[in-house]
């Protein structure tokens, strides 16, 4: 179910590690803030080929997938990204699809401890992430 858009920031996870290790300056980390469709019908984070290229991600492998409102297709799995939403961060491997839509699916929502309130069509924090 598509619930609207939320703004997320995606960073090249390898760049983040390099910046933390002093190899790159923090302002050299490839990142982008984009609107993402919150879609509980999607399993993971889905990004476009253009966004994958902008972040400098490599394609790691391919798999068959059924995306919402799309026929079965081969999708690519990219290098990890650091996903940031309202003070919370996770590392995840995005699917790269031919569509230009950016989808925030169930797995990253769960990893961020975000619950979808269907009655209000809002995202809610769930508990304390420290345990």
Question: How would you characterize the overall build of this protein?
Answer:
The protein has 131 residues and is an alpha+beta fold. It has a single domain (2-125), classed as Cathepsin D, subunit A, domain 1, CATH 2.40.70. The protein has helices at residues 13-20, 49-54, 106-111, and strands spanning 2-12, 31-39, 45-48, 59-65, 73-78, 81-85, 88-92, 95-97, 103-104, 114-117, 122-125. It has a 9-stranded mixed beta sheet with strand order 4-5-8-3-9-2-1-6-7. The chain is globular. The model has no long low-confidence stretch (mean pLDDT 85).
Count of DSSP H/I helices? 3
Measured by DSSP, the beta-strand proportion falls in over 45%
Fourth CATH level, the homologous superfamily = Acid Proteases
Biggest sheet strand line-up: 4-5-8-3-9-2-1-6-7
What's the gyration radius in Å? Answer: 15 Å
- Domain module tally: 1
Q: What is the CATH-assigned architecture?
A: Beta Barrel
- Contiguous low-pLDDT stretches (5 residues minimum) are none
Instruction: For the record, give the distance between the C-alpha atoms at the N and C termini, rounded to a whole number.
Output: 29 Å
Report the structural category.
alpha+beta
Q: State the name of the first-level CATH class.
A: Mainly Beta
Helix-strand sequence = EHEEHEEEEEEHEE
Whole-number mean pLDDT: 85
Q: Kindly identify the CATH topology.
A: Cathepsin D, subunit A, domain 1
List descriptors.
Cathepsin D, subunit A, domain 1, 131 residues, alpha+beta, 15% helix, nine-stranded mixed sheet, 11 strands, two-stranded antiparallel sheet
